[in-house]
Amino acid sequence: MNPVRKFFRLAMIFCLAVPVLAVAQSSEGGGKVWLIPIHGDIEPSTAAFVRREARRALSQGADYLIFEIDTFGGRVDSALQITSFITSVRNARTIAWITPSETSLGVSWSAGALIAFACDDIYMAPGTSIGAAAPVMVGAEGATAAGEKNVAAVRSQMAALAERNGHPVGLGLAMVDFDIELWEVLVNGETRAVTSDELLRIERDVRGGVPVIERVGIISERGKLLSLTAGEAQHYGLARELVDSREDLLALIGAGGEFTESFPSAADSIVSFLTSGPVQGILILIGLVLIFLELQSPGFGIPGIAGVMAFLVVFGSSALLGRVDSLEIIIFLLGLGLLAIEIFVLPGFGVVGITGIVFIGLSLVLSMQDFVLPRFEWEWQLLGRNVTVVFMSLVASIFGIIAIALVGPKIRMFDKIMLKAAITGTAGGPDPDSPAMKAYEAAMPVPVVGVSAHAGMASEDEELFISLIGKTGVTDSVLRPAGRALIDDRIYTVEADGEFVEEGKSITVTRVRGNRIIVRKVQGV
Question: What is the H or E stretch that residue 191 is in?
Fold first, then answer.
C-alpha cells in the first residue's frame, strides 16, 4: 500500500476515534456537578442567590445543576423568577432533588413544587413529599385561596413546565387547582395520572378496543389539592428514582466528575434581613428623621450623613436583588429636589412639597418590587404590602419629627443641631418693642428717640404713617418679611412682624417705627 495513502487512512481513523472515545468516557461518568440548595421560605433573596450561583456554575462549565429543594413555599413572584431562570438554562442538565435538610423532613410544596417542575428531572429521597402549589393570599385574617386569575396564571405556568420537561401534566394541574379531579388509569397496561376531562377524551377516542383503558381509582377529588409522597411521585412517573444520598444521585445521573456545592454566605443573610419589610420600614423612618435634623442645623454634618446612609442601605440592598435601576433613583432624587425647593425657596408648605413626598414614597415602593404596574393578584397584594410599609414609615417619621421639634430644644444633646434663636425683629432692624431693645434703651444715658430711622424724613409722612396704625389692607406681594401692601387705596412698603405673608392676604398695621410700617396677618382670612 502506498505509504502516503496509509498515513491518511490512519489519520482519518484517529480523527473518528477521538470523539467516540470522548463520548464513551462521558457516558461512563464525568462532567462538572454543581449543587445549589433551596431551603426555607422562597424570598427575593432566594431568587437572587439561585440565579447568581447558577450563573457562576455555568460560567465555570457545569454540566449538571442540582437544586436541592426543601421548602414549604414562599412568594410567587420569586418562585417564578427562579423557574424562568432554570428554563433558560441550555448548556447544563437541571435536576431537582427533594431531600431532607437540617430544619425539615424534606418537602417541596407550593412554590417549591413549581421550581421542581421547571427542572429536567426530579429525584426524591424516601419520606419526602411534593405538591400543594395553589397560590394563596396572606392578609390580616390569615391565608386564603387566591382568585381565579391568580390560579389560572400559576396553573398555565405549571402545565407549560410539565409539558416542556416531560412531567405528567395532570399531576401539576391537580397540585394548583382545587377544581381538578385526577384519576389513575391503565392505558394499555401503563399507569397514568390524568384529569377527568382528559380521561373522557381518551375513552371517547377508543376505536376497536384500542387503546385499552382501565380506571383504577381517583387520585385527587375536586375541592382538594394534590400532594404526593416520594413513592407516589415515582409510581405516577413524576420522580425518576428515589435517592437517599448524593453519591447515589451522582451515580444515577452518570456524573462522576468534579462536584461543587454552593452555600448562602453571610452577605446573603444580611441582604435578606435588610430587604425584609419591617427593617426597610425602620430604615425609611430613620432616614427621614435624620434628614429633618440635618435641615435644622447649619452645614452638613452627622445627621445628614447618617440619613443618606439609611437610604443608601434601602436602595443598595434592593439593587443587589435586581429591583432597583435608574427609574427609582431618578424619582427619589426628583422628590428630594422638590422637597428642598419647598423648604428653602417657597414659603409655607404646598403642592411642591407634597409632590416631593409622593415622589420619594413612590421611589421607595418601586425599590421593593421588580415590576412597575401590577398585572396579577399577587402583584397587587405585594404592591399593597409595600405601600403600607412606606406609608406607615412616613407617618411614623412625621410624628417623630413633631416630637423632636417639641422636645428637642429641652434636650441638651440636641443643642448643637437645633436652632433655638428666636426672631425678635424684622428686616429693617431689631424690634424697638422687644425686651432686649427696651433694656438697651433704659441703659443709655440719653433716651433713644426711635421715631425716625432717616433724619430727613418729612414730618407729614411721619404723621401719615402713624395714622395707619390699626388700619387693614391687602398684601400686593409676598412679605418675606418685607414687601408691598395696599392700605387706603395706596401702596406702601411694609414689613411683616416676623412671619411670611402670601400675596392677597389681609393684614393690619400694628405699629410704626420711623419709616417702617409693621403689619401682621389677619388670622382666619
Answer: strand 190-195
HSE-CB at 26 with a 13 A cutoff on CA atoms is: 10
pTM over 0.90: no
315-366: per-residue pLDDT in tens? 888 888 878 888 888 998 898 888 778 767 776 567 887 888 889 889 999 9
Most distant pair of Cα atoms in the chain: their distance: 137
Distance from C-alpha of 195 to C-alpha of 201, rounded to nearest angstrom: 10
User: Which cell is 164 given?
Assistant: 416542556
Helical H segments across 408-453, by residue range: 435-443
> In which residue are the cell numbers 424724613 written?
457
Q: Which residues of 28-61 are buried (b: 16+ CB within 10 A; e: fewer)?
A: eeebbbbbbbbbbebbbbbbbbbbebbeebbeee
Predicted confidence (pLDDT) at residue 449 exceeds the cutoff of 50: no
* pLDDT, tens only, 85-98: 999 999 999 999 99
Let me know the angle formed at the C-alpha of 390 by 384 and 392, rounded to the nearest 5 degrees.
95
Query: Distances in Å between the alpha carbon of 130 and those of 108, 112, 137, 194?
Result: 5, 8, 20, 17
The CA distance from 95 to 118, in Å, is: 9
